[in-house]
Specification:
about 375 residues; mainly alpha; elongated; 20 helices
């Protein structure tokens, strides 16, 4: 609270520094109104904050997550009244508005732990808590808040389907801040946005541009094989395109290595100018080269190292080291003929019945997708 007050007091010196000795009177009036509002909210919420700082209350909060049990305990032991609960939310929101995210997070958490899920400000407190953790760069706490929001959205029976879809779209966008900063965030993008049907549906319906970030996560993930087949199916169904999604399609759908090289150069420009993935540029480039080499080696029996070096924009000696590393990481059946400058691939064959299973296992999904598209066109009268 003291820091918030200091911030308000320091505001006058900032006004004087910007406007000189005689800043506009309206600014002074605005500042005085903010300070008055802050003082009022502090007074109204101070008793609640003091109560939550008590040891026995903290133990009950930690032990009982059910809001009714907490409410009964506070009512019986501290004569807590429901009217005081909204003051806690308003104070937390005010702290968020003036940039004191630590105090905002604490108060919004107090409110959320006590208020029923259908309370007027419950949803706002949830989103405010998430935003406060993101703005403090508390990525572990922010990840926990995302999971809690996901559970609450799924359990919100009072919301219509359209409202749930909007809530999930908001979570997807806020989640980008967390997933591209948390150590396990890239895998979470694949698990949530690609593998969980409600969120994949939200992406396809509300925000197909998120496919850029899903594709980036798949390319740089160590679990790439877990997501690439599903990603390809989704990309082929959608009209959204950008260099990152087109890079993947050029390799896994068209097997066009020249196009893949051209798209990889465009990806560099896109990534450098994207707030969320600009930090992934080196990792993306490295993994993209690995994918190109791996696919190239899988569809050729014998490859000249010089030709591979040209495709990767490398010197032959560097390309040979790259291939050795790629064979190890991709578990390829291959060996290097350094004397003649070749990579020789092993002749592993796939049984006929396995080929049949691979080609037919997704037919029902494709059939359902075709039926949905036909129904949609019939509905629209196309």
């Amino acid at each position: 609270e003291g820091r918030a007050g200091d911030g308000m007091r320091n505001g006058s010196s900032g006004i004087n520094a910007e406007y000189g000795e005689d800043p506009p009177e309206a600014l002074h009036q605005k500042r005085n109104e903010v300070v008055r509002q802050l003082t009022s909210l502090q007074e109204r919420s101070s008793q609640v904050i003091e109560m939550f700082s008590k040891k026995d209350v903290a133990e009950v909060v930690e032990k009982h997550r059910d809001s009714q049990q907490l409410w009964d305990f506070l009512s019986d032991n501290y004569k807590f009244e429901r009217e005081r609960l909204d003051d806690v939310f308003h104070y937390g929101k005010f702290m968020y508005d003036v940039g004191n995210y630590a105090i905002a997070s604490t108060n919004l958490d107090f409110y959320r732990n006590l208020a029923p899920a259908d309370s007027k400000y419950y949803s706002s407190a949830q989103w405010g808590k998430l935003a406060s953790e993101i703005l403090q760069q508390n990525w572990d706490e922010a990840m926990e808040e995302l999971e809690r929001l996901k559970d609450n959205i799924s359990a919100a029976l009072h919301l219509t389907y359209s409202e749930v879809l909007v809530q999930r779209a908001w979570l997807i966008h806020w989640g980008l801040f967390v997933y591209f900063n948390h150590p396990q965030g890239r895998d979470s993008i694949i698990d949530v946005f690609l593998h969980q049907k409600p969120y994949l549906n939200a992406v396809q319906t509300m925000c197909p541009h998120i496919l850029r970030y899903i594709t980036t996560a798949v390319v740089i993930s160590k679990r790439r094989r877990d997501g690439i087949k599903e990603l390809i199916k989704v990309l082929q169904q959608e009209s959204y395109k950008d260099p990152i999604t087109e890079f993947v399609e050029s390799l896994y759908v068209n097997f066009d290595f020249d196009e893949a090289q051209a798209k990889l150069k465009e990806c560099k420009t896109v990534i450098e100018n994207d707030f969320f993935i600009v930090g992934c540029l080196d990792e993306f480039t490295e993994n993209a080269r690995l994918i190109i080499s791996e696919i190239f080696c899988r569809i050729h029996q014998r490859i000249e190292i010089d030709m591979l070096a040209d495709n990767l924009n490398m010197e032959p000696a560097e390309a040979e080291k790259w291939v050795v590393n790629m064979i190890r990481l991709a578990h390829l059946d291959a060996k290097i003929d350094s004397k003649n400058g070749y990579v020789v691939m092993g002749g592993t064959s796939v049984p006929v019945y396995q080929k049949l299973i691979d080609k037919t296992k997704d037919l029902h999904l494709k059939a359902n997708s075709c039926c949905q598209k036909i129904d949609k066109k019939l509905t629209l009268g196309i």
